[in-house]
Amino acid sequence: MRTILAIQYFGSLFVFSAAKKEASELGTVTRINLGTTYSCVVVFKDGNVEIIANDQENCITPSWVAFTNTERLIGEARKNQAAVNPERTVFDVKRLIGQNEDKEVQNDMKLVPYKIVNKDGKPYIEIQIKDGETKVFSPEEISAMILTKMKETTESYLGKKIKDAVATVPAYFNDAQRQATKDAGVIAGLNVQELSMNQLRQPLPTNLGRYSLDRKDGEKHILIFDLGGGTCDVSILTIDNGANGNTHLGGGEKNILVFDLGGGTFDVSILTIDNGVFEVLATNGDTHLGGEDFDHRIMDHFIKLIKKKHEKDISKDNRALGKLRRECERAKRALSNQHQVRLEIESLFDGIDFSEPLTRARFEELNNDLFRKTMGPVKKAMKDAGLEKHQIDEIVLVGGSTRIPKVQQLLKDYFDGKELNKRINPDEAVAYGAAVQGGILSGEGGDKTKGVLLLDVAPLTLGIETVGGVMTKLIPRNNGERSLTKDCKNCRLLGTFDLTGIAPAQRGAPQIEVTFEVDVDGILNVKAEDKANGRFELTITNEKGRLSREEIDQMVKEAEEFAEEDKKVKERIDARNSLETYIYNMKNQMNDKDKLAAKLDSDEKERIETTTKPLNGWTTIRTPRRRITKKRSKKLRLCAIQL
């Protein structure tokens, strides 16, 4: 018997709870929000959630990786590389992770400057890492580099090594995308305890605790709208503060709708909170809709305008597109607070100095269909949850793009003019929620997370295809799916298996029991048994697009090699900086009459100048060897000692 697993892109009301390791088995659990455009890391410390700033003192880090001839740059360090080194700068990799070479990936290939290649039916990134050396990376490897950067940020802050982590993924990520994210964690040297994969485990628990949505008595229905740089989530929760009003959530049942729109994906979930129990009622979304799409619309507009005014086509020039992309993102952000902004780029292309205005009205016109598209999942989630608009007591906005006035207005209009709650920092909410989940797992949350029970959903229907293409649902969505896999446009093949050794019998007589298990991370495990003889002889063909054990091991090894090379580069830079500082201080002392200047004769000054002059020029070389640095520095120090 041959059985095919399939998955439909519709929300499900199947609820499962999370079994977790004993807190005593875990060390400190860091919480990483791996975003399409930006990432963030937090820890639970002394009963409080703390967002960790990176080495540039910023709370969010760009999810970008760049390669030069001498080093690998991750996060903030890549900023100056994007415009001058576009083909070797990788971003938006979250849109590729766990994907196949489908139509959406083909469209993405047109929007990024780096090269995406097909390897075994999956998108890989081909990058020149050094002069004459090109390497092909999987999306998991690039994501692992970002996770490693966030891990190092945490370790620097805490002063100790970190192994355990909770990583966030969009609620509407399918099985392959979730597994690929866990694989990225393994490559980064992390033990991903859980994937925080919906609004409940992302912003919600912290929002309730931090912004005191629970302070009012009685029943409360809350909608949270999370529109970030590239992902979007919408969830509705019902909160019951309890009859006695003595829980940390307060009293009264409440519904909350969470809307999460970030850099690349869009999720809508409806949840209920009842006396400390968080239960997801419905989930919907779009895995390819977010803030990056708004940027692309602006870019397309100005590419056409430049072609019309200057008869120049910049669409094939990656350097010009990199400059334009950065300016378009800046303009988009500015238009959330002002009605007009001017985009200015010197020497954009072929001697052209670009300077054009963009009004908020024009921006809204360019993205009108995308903004309105976010309302579709809201309506579907409301319908699946069986709620009416008036049952939503609170609408909470989460995610950077919820700052866009038009998005706020559409949401407000849909809920008949209801005021939106804007007290939450949209850039930090997801990481805060992941921190709460990590606090529960590690036990670091203490009384603040004690008694919180999370009941999650399978957002996509899971089932099997048997003879004739009939889709048998084992873990169903709420309603509305097609029963034939050939009619399911959004069905995704997860894998196939053969159950062999079935005893001969009449047609339809054999009884085969197929069991689906969805773990806390939403990852599917399947087994099948011939009830007549109890046989479990399965031959499984993996179609999920995940990496093999051998591939992961090889990537872990390569990641360690990259880390070692990064360490050597840092040591060379530190040594060079030390030498430059020493030369600078020596020159200052030599010219300071109150210090060495008064004690040195002309011959001694000449000896110092003769020694420092070639060294000062040498430190400007881009790739100095560390051993030479020490040798030259030693020579200079000996010169000073002899004086």
From TrEMBL:
One of its GO terms (cellular component) is endoplasmic reticulum lumen. Its main location: endoplasmic reticulum. It is found in: Endoplasmic reticulum lumen. Residues 307-334, 552-606 form a coiled coil. InterPro entries: ATPase_NBD (IPR043129), BIP_NBD (IPR042050), Heat_shock_70_CS (IPR018181), HSP70_C_sf (IPR029048), HSP70_peptide-bd_sf (IPR029047), Hsp_70_fam (IPR013126). Residues 1-19 form the signal peptide. It comes from Fraxinus pennsylvanica. Pfam families: HSP70. This is Uncharacterized protein. PANTHER family: HEAT SHOCK PROTEIN 70KDA. Keywords: ATP-binding, Coiled coil, Endoplasmic reticulum, Nucleotide-binding, Signal. The keyword Secreted does not apply. Belongs to the heat shock protein 70 family. The keyword Cytoplasm does not apply. One of its GO terms (molecular function) is ATP binding.
